[in-house]
Amino acid sequence: MVSGGKSGQEGAPARGGAARTRGRPRSFDRATALEKALMAFWERGYEATSVSDLTRVMDIGAPSLYAAFGDKRSLFEEVVQVYGERYGSFGSRALAEEPTARAGVERMLREAAVEYTAPGRPHGCLVIHAAANCSTAEVEESLRERRNANIAAIEERIGADVSAGVLPPDTDAAALARYAGAMIQGMSQQARDGAGRAELAALAEIALAVWPRP
pTM value? Predict the structure, then answer.
């Protein structure tokens, strides 16, 4: 509560003959609200998550949502950024930290089996599933660009191994990268459909069997 000012005398009436108070929006923890929005978009997708859904799960009013995050699309863009940093970075870390493309993809698939089935949160990948039945072209395109960027990163890593002689010179880096991307996306959908960690881990092992040897 914010007062409109103090009078010189304690207990004196405010100007105009009546005490007036000015309300302000209920404060909220922005990071907590953002995490709740993330979970809603992850579970339902962009299109199926309404502003009223968001205000309910975030426990804030629409004016507070718009003031803190902008519109629904702006909120979603921030959600995707946070998701990538908090939940979706295992793939890029695997490619960066492992000595070869094969080791990076192997780790990526194995960690996907864990991440996509983790308890206490929606299964699968938000970036893969959030655009389902989406009629907002900009959102759909943004998510598509992120998925394609992931495949491009795998292709670049494979290409580097071909140049270094780690993989055969006739390796089709683009096709192999797209195959790895298809496996990641398929594992995400399988997780959404109820496949468990062990089932996805077994799938990852089979996927690696086709990887070319030097």
Answer: 0.83
Summarised one tens digit per residue, pLDDT across range 144-198 is 999 999 999 999 999 999 999 999 999 999 999 999 999 999 999 999 999 999 9
User: DSSP characters for the chain?
Assistant: -EES---SSTTPPPTTSS--EE--PPP--HHHHHHHHHHHHHHH-TTT--HHHHHHHHT--HHHHHHHH-SHHHHHHHHHHHHHHHTSTHHHHHHHHSSSHHHHHHHHHHHHHHHTT-TTS-SS-HHHHTTTT---HHHHHHHHHHHHHHHHHHHHHHHHHHHTTSS-TT--HHHHHHHHHHHHHHHHHHHHTT--HHHHHHHHHHHHTT----
